[in-house]
Every structure is written in structure tokens, then in C-alpha cells.
Amino acid sequence: GNWEQLGRDTSNSFFLRELEFFNCRLGDHKMSFLFRGLTRSSSVKRLCLRRNEFGFSGVQSMVPFLQNANNLSSLTIDYNNITSEGFKSLFRALRDSPITIISAISYCGLDSIEID
């Protein structure tokens, strides 16, 4: 499928509040396409990416979206190999975000959690 087009279509929706990509085999490559299209989306409040196949590069693809996601309150990324570096990158991107829930503890390849 065309993940970038899906991201663009989602960005154009003013009413879409929740996105759930549960067990969709989203690897780093698909994540880069999806979030390239999704970057301008501002209506999403809840994003679930549980049980996919992305790692640090996939998290990096999310950064522009996360920095612009003014309404995002919940992010679920359990069961992805985001690693400690990805976790740090995620927190840096969310520094000024209104997010209140991040679920990223289960099986994420974290060996330490140090945020600078």
C-alpha cells in the first residue's frame, strides 16, 4: 500500500482523533513514508503503534509529526525495538508537547532510560 498517501489523507482530516496501527508490520521504511505524509496532522489525540517492527530510524521518522502534534495526548509504541537512543529522541521531540501518556516500556529494546 501507499503509506505516504495514507499519511497525507489522514493529515487532511480535521476530525480524526485516533490512529491505531496495531500489528501492521510497520518497519522503519514504512514508518518513513507514513510520517512523511502525516507530519502536518494536528487533530490526532491518540496514536497507537503497538506491535510493529520499527526501531530507532522509525522513531526518527516520527519526530517532525511529534513536534507539530499539538493535540497528541497518548502515544503507544510497546513491542517495537526503539532502543534507548530512540527513547531519548522521542522524549526530546515531545519536550513541548501536551502529551500525558506514553506507553513504551514493554519489549522496546531499552537497556537504560537516560534523558538529557
From TrEMBL:
Top-level division of the source organism's lineage: Eukaryota
Record bears the keyword Manganese: no
InterPro entries: Leu-rich_rpt, LRR-containing_regulator, LRR_dom_sf
Keywords: Repeat
Record-linked SUPFAM superfamilies: RNI-like
One Pfam family hit: LRR_6
Protein name: Uncharacterized protein
Source organism of this protein record: Skeletonema marinoi
